[in-house]
Specification:
- The chain has a single domain, classed as Porin (Beta Barrel).
- It contains one helix and 15 strands.
- Strands 1-4-5-8-9-11-12-15 form an eight-stranded antiparallel β-barrel.
- It is mainly beta.
- It comes from Caulobacter flavus.
Length: 216
């Protein structure tokens, strides 16, 4: 499932939720409120950086990192009616390929743990439809990597930053439908075959999520 398809599903879900529950009583967001969201999340890296030799010579190849869709969990706490802190947790698996003229080979598969901590501004916490924006930091942790086709690949962990936009639609009581889009900027150094080949990979994933939440 691509990020575009998930975004379309998210829009249709929001429209359906708004229409079906327009007259239902709901719990608004407020200072001291906790909100827990369970989402389906698409992580789509924007990699395509050149692979060069240890001396920096061009190889004609580039690093390609495939998308993945997994469940994620988000927890928000409203410091004020409009300001909230959010932490998201989840893990995705990505295939790393070396691609170029006449070449399309899998070199590595890795799991990534990319927690994001963000500060959100909610525009209409007392309304049924509550859009928000946010900004924060993330940490990319690569683990359980498996090399493929005779290659060895080492990826550096590190910090990045993220921007965010989304909306909550209250449906009934404490329950909401949540749609969230994040853009994360993160660069990792990839060393292939002990450094014989290397690449500065700008992963810069787009993270699209849709799910349901509950306020406490």
């Amino acid at each position: 499932m691509t990020a575009r398809r998930l975004a379309l599903i998210a829009g249709l879900t929001l429209a359906a939720a708004t229409g079906a529950h327009a007259q239902e009583a709901f719990t608004p967001a407020a200072k001291g409120t906790w909100q827990v969201n369970l989402r389906a999340t698409s992580v789509s890296p924007d990699a395509g950086d050149p692979i060069v030799t240890s001396a920096g010579a061009a190889t004609g190849l580039r690093a390609d990192v495939k998308d993945d869709v997994r469940p994620t969990l988000g927890v928000s706490y409203f410091v004020t009616d409009k300001l909230a802190l959010e932490v998201i947790a989840g893990t995705t698996q990505h295939t790393v390929k070396a691609v170029g003229p006449g070449t399309d080979v899998v070199v590595h598969k890795t799991w990534v743990l990319p927690p994001v901590v963000s500060v959100q501004y909610h525009f209409a916490p007392k309304a049924r439809f509550n859009p928000y924006v946010g900004a924060g930091l993330n940490y990319m942790l690569f683990y359980s990597g498996k090399d493929r086709n005779g290659f060895t690949v080492d990826l550096d962990d590190g910090f990045g930053y993220a921007l965010q936009a989304g909306a909550d639609i209250a449906v009934k009581g404490p329950y909401v439908v949540n749609v969230d889009v994040k853009k994360v900027w993160f660069e990792t150094d990839a060393k292939i075959n002990g450094g014989a080949l290397k690449s500065k990979v700008n992963l810069d994933p787009t993270v699209v999520s849709v799910g349901v939440g509950r306020r406490f």
